[in-house]
Design a protein that fits this description.
Layout (H helix, E strand, L loop, with lengths): L1 H19 L1 H8 L3 H23 L5 H18 L5 H13 L3 H16 L6 H24 L3 H25 L1 H6 L16 H22 L4 H23 L2 H6 L6 H16 L4
């Protein structure tokens, strides 16, 4: 029965989420159970595409991405895929009428990672951020609003800003791996120069502005999504604060992390804020 296969597909996406990101999986657990599987499906899709371009160094990445794109297109056309990750994703795309343009923009940014090593102009940088992060926020928002187009439009900019903030924090904390292992420089401020207190301050101010604008939208999310999104927001804000207080060498040589006890503390505080209607 296809229902069994669909269940296995969604469980596979959940396994991907839990295996690759303890922080994101924790935030998903704070969403309404009605939409958790749908967000797992979106995460599984974007994670697998990202893994192709970031991790599979011993293989032909372009070939793998082309095959993934082909299988994605077939899944969206047929409404089924024997790849369980793509099967669960296409199910969510059809269920919520997710705009195909968002998917195309995401895959375009993944292709940038095959050949583009630096983003020296603001235009290129913003295009990459839009495709790799903003559209993921918009896919999730489509699930959160469950067909309410007016609410979607009112929260669209904030969802994009939150996606941007998350991605930029990841860029900063993964500075060493991106530059040494992948030979990539995402921030235009760092093309051809080392991280310094001056450009660090500029980048952090940019990220904080994204967070501030994103918070406006978080306050107006449906109750099914608000606590989970707020939890993720608080976690990434804490990461940013740790980067702010870390010296340049620590950022360049280590991946900044939030400890497990601190994650629990953040979750507790987020729950208090949510229950007390402080967000």
């Amino acid at each position: 029965m296809k229902s069994i296969f669909d269940t296995v597909s969604f469980e596979s996406s959940k396994l991907v989420t839990n295996s690759y990101s303890t922080s994101f999986s924790l935030a998903v657990k704070m969403l309404s159970p009605k939409i958790q599987d749908d967000i797992h499906a979106i995460y599984g899709f974007v994670r697998f595409a990202d893994e192709i371009v970031d991790s599979f160094h011993e293989y032909d990445k372009e070939l793998l991405l082309n095959e993934f794109q082909r299988d994605l297109d077939v899944a969206l056309e047929r409404g089924i895929s024997l790849n369980p990750i793509l099967n669960s994703f296409q199910h969510v795309v059809k269920k919520y009428s997710i705009d195909y343009d968002l998917i195309h923009a995401f895959m375009k940014s993944m292709r940038f990672d095959l050949t583009k090593n630096e983003y020296s102009t603001v235009e290129d940088y913003e295009e990459y951020i839009y495709g790799s992060a903003d559209v993921v926020g918009l896919m999730c928002l489509t699930v959160f609003v469950n067909g309410d187009k007016e609410l979607y439009e009112s929260l669209k900019e904030s969802a994009m800003k939150l996606g941007s903030a998350f991605q930029k924090v990841n860029f900063l904390r993964d500075l060493k791996a991106d530059s040494e292992e992948l030979n990539r420089v995402y921030f235009p401020q760092l093309v051809g120069v080392e991280l310094s207190e001056v450009n660090k301050k500029e980048i952090i101010e940019e990220i904080q502005k994204d967070f501030d604008e994103a918070y406006i939208g978080i306050k107006n999310l449906p109750k099914e999504a608000k606590f989970g999104v707020y939890t993720a927001y608080k976690y990434y804000n804490k990461l940013l604060k740790k980067i702010v207080t870390s010296d340049i060498e620590a950022i360049k040589m280590n991946r900044i992390r939030v400890s497990n006890p601190m994650k629990i503390a953040l979750l507790t505080k987020s729950y208090f804020d949510y229950k007390m209607n402080l967000i």
